[in-house]
Write a structure and sequence with these properties.
This protein is mainly beta and 517 residues long. It contains one helix and 42 strands.
């Protein structure tokens, strides 16, 4: 359950609290303060009280021997995260679903937990409660995904977690719905994920959740189209040709356990995610085929779609060669200030949102979106860093922009964008209106979007997230009849499913594309 139940960099903040008497009280899971039973895919809910605005460390354990007691040497952590009172964004864990700072935290979501015994602990300053439970198999699955996992030599095959996550919208649900289903491998490494699917054409991402770093999972993930029974989705681990290690700290130099991070090549051809251990240490392995003389960048994950409480740590790495072992630490800065200003296109408000990133070179970055009408933006930053470069990413191909320097606390910064007339237009006049499937698809990080205009039209080409939010506008203006290609660079966007919509006069068409980093 990587999206909803991933521990983030807020854990170090929680561990540094020292409020006397702070604790988790009135805890219930699925209505019980002691034990619960549910089927895989049923809603999982919990409620607890905590001092206003504070958060609890939530740990979900597989109770592998079924004795109802947490035994770290025997049982296995499935997920660990912070849930904070009033945090409706959920950047530091699942959101508090009432969204109010009122000392009461709640969660309710259907989740495809693997059939098993579980122990859930909720603590603040080591004071809290525990609820045990049983998840039974899905009664009537209409889809299965199965295969084998071959772990590194010396690692046990049993109880490796394999996860399938839905990538597309569920049209019969009235919109997009993120869905996760998990399975535990048996003693031979064989797993079967039982799940419900909303459509036989739905894309799913299948991956191994266990981290055997520096060994490398191959493939890192499998993108599949779900049918009644998918078999042979196999994973194996190989030894790395090189590795990158380090610690992730907060800006008080406290190590952050279970922080998500990733490494990516400067070319965009290779990327790999990882997570720090209980001491804030990480190891990421690289394959020989990836070591082709290019540079790399190392980053922590964001705390949501846009920066809210913490900045994204980043480091630039030199070319890595076989046999190398690089050590680099990352510092996650708390957002305690902001930079405010406006985006202007040829001196006027842009009329659509733009993706703005404030970068402190080789240290940290923050991101936000400008207002779709006025161009106004506020981007959270840290005043512990000396300065930032403000950049606009993923501008349409006919827009130009130069970076602007800024300091924490600046107001009224103007980001001037120049709109040019550069287009990619093929010869001839097509016979009809058409929006073609982007190519390549899936892509990382660039793709081409081709469309046909049989007559001159006012054209908009817009990219949306799976939640229906406009993330960028690739074209907005008059175009003559012809065949056009727009190059979409998604370097600054997270992996996932996006939709692009073409409007030309009264003609409208939409297509789906998958960004895989």
């Amino acid at each position: 359950m990587k999206l909803l139940l991933s521990c983030s960099i807020g854990l170090a903040v929680l561990l540094s609290w020292s409020l006397a008497g702070a604790q988790v009280t009135n805890l219930t899971v699925n209505g019980s303060s002691s034990s619960f039973t549910l089927a895989s895919g049923d809603p999982v809910s919990w409620d607890f009280d905590i001092p206003n605005g504070q958060g609890a460390l939530v740990t979900i354990w597989f109770d592998l021997n079924g004795n109802g007691t947490v035994e770290p040497g025997t049982d296995k952590v499935f997920a660990q995260f912070i849930q904070t009172d009033g945090d409706s964004n959920g950047g530091n864990g699942p959101p508090d679903m009432d969204g109010i700072v009122n000392g009461h935290v709640t969660f309710n979501q259907p989740i495809g937990l693997a059939p098993s015994k579980y122990i859930l602990t909720f603590t603040h300053n080591s004071v809290g409660g525990t609820v045990v439970g049983t998840v039974t198999p899905l009664v009537s699955p209409n889809g299965t995904i199965s295969g084998t996992v071959t772990p590194p030599t010396g690692k046990e095959k049993r109880n490796i977690v394999v996860e399938a996550s839905q990538l597309t919208d569920s049209s019969n649900q009235g919109g997009h719905k993120e869905v996760f289903w998990d399975a535990l491998a048996d003693s031979t490494g064989f797993y079967t994920i039982d799940l419900h699917s909303d459509s036989s054409t739905t894309f799913w991402r299948v991956s191994v959740s266990d981290n055997f770093a520096p060994s490398i999972a191959s493939p890192a993930e499998a993108i599949v189209v779900l049918h009644a029974a998918l078999t042979g989705i196999n994973f194996s681990y190989t030894s790395p040709a090189a590795q990158v290690t380090g610690f992730v700290y907060n800006d008080n130099m406290v190590a952050i356990p279970n922080a998500s991070l990733y490494i990516g090549s400067d070319s965009g051809n290779f990327s790999r995610g990882s997570q720090t251990d209980g001491n804030g240490f990480f190891t990421i392995g690289l394959q020989a085929s990836e070591l082709n003389g290019q540079g790399w960048h190392l980053q922590t994950s964001t705390d949501g779609n846009w920066t809210t409480t913490t900045l994204q740590a980043n480091r630039e790495l030199p070319p890595i060669n076989p046999g190398d072992s690089l050590h680099r630490n990352l510092i996650v800065y708390t957002a305690n200030s902001q930079i405010e200003g406006y985006v202007r296109v040829n001196g006027a408000a842009p009329g659509f949102p733009m993706y703005i990133v404030a970068i402190s070179p080789d240290t940290a970055q923050a991101n936000t979106s400008s207002d779709s009408v006025t161009g106004h933006f506020i981007i959270p930053v840290s005043n512990k860093l000396s300065g930032y470069s403000l950049n606009i990413f993923n501008l349409p191909f006919n827009y130009g922009f130069g970076a602007v320097s800024a300091q924490a606390g600046d107001t009224g910064r103007i980001l001037n964008v120049i709109l040019s007339s550069v287009v990619e237009r093929g010869s001839g006049v097509p016979s009809g209106f058409a929006l073609h499937q982007n190519y390549p698809n899936p892509f990382n990080p660039t793709t081409g979007i081709r469309y046909d205009l049989p007559k001159a039209s006012y054209v908009t080409l817009t990219v949306f997230s799976v939640l229906g939010e406009e993330v960028t506008r690739l074209w907005d203006g008059q175009q003559e009849a012809g065949t056009y290609t727009v190059r979409f660079d998604a370097s600054a966007f997270p992996s996932g499913v996006y939709f692009y919509r073409l409007t030309a006069g009264s003609s409208v068409a939409t297509q789906k594309m998958v960004l895989m980093k």
